[in-house]
Amino acid sequence: MKKIDINILGLGNLGTAFFEGLQSNNNLNLHLYEENDQIRTDFSKSYGVEVASHIDSLDSGVLILCIKPQSINTFFDSFSKNISTDILICSPVAGLEIETIHKYVENRIIRIMPNLLIRKNNGFIPYVKNYDGDYLSFLEIALSSLGTTKEFVEKFFPLVTAISGSGPAWYYELSRQLTNSATQLGMDEVDAEELVKELIKALPNLINTEDSFGELVNKVKSPKGTTEAGLDSLNDDSFDTIIFNAIQKSTNRSIEISAELKNE
Ligand SMILES: NC(=O)c1ccc[n+]([C@@H]2O[C@H](COP(=O)([O-])OP(=O)(O)OC[C@H]3O[C@@H](n4cnc5c(N)ncnc54)[C@H](OP(=O)(O)O)[C@@H]3O)[C@@H](O)[C@H]2O)c1
Predict the structure, then answer these.
(1) Which of 44, 56, 68, 96 to mutate for ligand 1's pocket (most ligand atoms within 8 Å of CB)?
(2) Of 101, 117, 187, 226, most Cβ neighbours within 10 A?
């Protein structure tokens, strides 16, 4: 089978996660681009691979845009003429709609919203695409090797971004507040962090069941017990409203970014 050329543009957090997740996939040829000199040098040294500063021309394969939304306009203005229409464009860029990419290029486009677990081939990758079938077998050969893929309609992408893309931050913040509570109640910070990190490590084994989250909560609490006392306090302090507001604000910000990118 002919190998697929995968071009990763931008080697920040997500571009590096793509590289780490795909580097041992024998069906792919990886090509890397990063305009920041220091990152390029450090990356080449760490991974022993060549990294170019920019794209000269692309004739076949896939281009994965791992750059910030604010870099998109400049990139397409400078480089769209160097990208053949046969190239599949894969965009994880938050807020960037397929329609907006189409203003710059005619290509087939797949929009995705992965999380950083793709680094360990254990990510979740929501996607939407503007073409039929599995062009270049990208879904089957590349994306599926990075984790679980699932198609969503594009109108849900702002919500998918808020829940899944930003999702790790919600859990990190909750963990930070659990740690803070333990230290405020007298525990040493190192011990508190260890307690919370060990808890997080245990969770995947505990949620790997058919139970809903409500049922899982019920399994931890017992009538008039310690968990119920804490849950009642969360309820009294409107935990549901706090979370709903955060997800709504994050979703709205995603919609705002889409509008800004569309009007650039
Ligand atoms: N991080 C996540 O968990 C995550 C999850 C889902 C989606 N995303 C999306 O993925 C994209 C990348 O996020 P990130 O966190 O990886 O950002 P990041 O850490 O800032 O990485 C972007 C890198 O791309 C470089 N770059 C910018 N324009 C370039 C160009 N034309 N050619 C080559 N390199 C270029 C940047 O260099 P300079 O700094 O010099 O500009 C930077 O090193 C964003 O659009 C974000 O919405 C991220």
Answers:
(1) 68
(2) 101
Q: Is 75 exposed, middle or buried (0-12, 13-18, 19+ CB in 10 A)?
A: middle
Those residues of the chain that have pLDDT short of 70 are none
How far does the centroid of ligand 1 lie from the alpha carbon of residue 223, in Å?
Answer: 48
147-159 per-residue burial string, b: 16 or more CB within 10 A, e: under 16: bebeebebeebbb
Residue 186: count of CB within 10 angstroms of its CB: 7
Q: How many angstroms does the Cα of residue 23 sit away from the middle of ligand 1?
A: 19
Instruction: Extract the tokens encoding 119.
Output: 């680094």
Instruction: Tell me the domain boundaries of the chain.
Output: 4-153, 167-257
Per-residue tokens: 232: 């009642």
Read off φ and ψ for residue 238, nearest 5 degrees.
55, 50
Taking the whole predicted model, whether its pTM rises above 0.70 is answered as yes
According to CATH, the topology of domain 4-153 is: Rossmann fold (3.40.50)
Ligand 1 atom nearest the C-alpha of 161 is: 6
* CA 17 – ligand 1 centroid, Å: 11
Compute the distance between CA of residue 149 and CA of residue 125 in angstroms, rounded to an integer: 5
CATH class of 167-257: mainly alpha
